[in-house]
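Worked example 2:
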Amino acid sequence: MIRASKGDGSTSMGCSASAALPPELALDDKEAKIGSSLRRNRRRSAQVVCAIIYLIFGAGIIWDGTVVTWVKEGSSKDAAEDAAERAPPTSVRNTPDTTQLAPQERKTVDIAQTSVRNTLDTAQLPAQKRKTVDISPVAAAIAPCVGAPWKEDENLLGTCPSDLKPYRGAGVPGAASCAQACCVNTACITWQYRADKGCLHGGDVRIGQEKDGVSAWCSDQPPRRWSGQKVLIRKGGRVAEDLRSTVCNVNTWDPTEQEGQCFGLGSVKKEGAESAQKCMELCCGAEDCGAWQWHEVEGCFYGKRMFSCAAADDPVVFQPFQGKRKFQATRKYVDMKGKPWKQSLI
């Protein structure tokens, strides 16, 4: 039986082998005398009409007030839902109606509460196209050091040399504890902390453009991704390998070879700040230049050798440190021209 209904199911139609045909197709006594061939044709016509009726009215028409759906009697609710999706709705709602689904099949999608964030998954990008995202924690509040004050308006957030050693004492879970441990230790002048490195203690250091004082030097800028490459490989004070034929050619060089900051290249150069290629060319033009590094903010550096290079395979190495040093009355904290130099905190 095929049924067509309108909401309350008031309309129905049947078609079977014994069902009455429309008047124009009914067989009377006169037609009964027609040859068997004509009767077969009539039966076939009747079957065609039934087939058409089945195709047209084989789906019940259900009017729910918002959409029109065609549902074959006995079909699954999945088919009904597919049909409803194809029909034009009278309104757009943020949450789809899932009341007709079993609890395990229901899903609520609240478009109104969905936010689009301007983020980039850099894990799937090649190294040269990755963008560094600052995910470092908020800097801890550091207590004053009574008796040996910290140098004011300063934060040792850049990379320092290996002169700073891991603190082996107990009770230093964070930057504040690391600072306190250095404060009470007269041998400790400088401290730094970062989650991956832990607590570091050491003697006095220079930072930024300072030229007076000890030889140990710390960057006054947070770790950044650099461009750089070795030109000469030195061993025992002699050149063991000359790489200039490869690294001094823009067709074969690899400026991403050393992305972690290195030490030993001296002061920033007046020229070469405009690009990594220019910095490389200046180094390759100098007879004894063994390595170079460039950064768009820091500028161009090159010299005989570079060492203590930061690893660049872990994103945490580009997070800033937190640290301070005790003020030293014997120092002037001046640059190469003898002028007072002070870190600029942004």
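Residues 1-21, 59-77, 86-136 have pLDDT under 50 and may be disordered. The CA atoms of residues 10 and 256 lie 77 Å apart.
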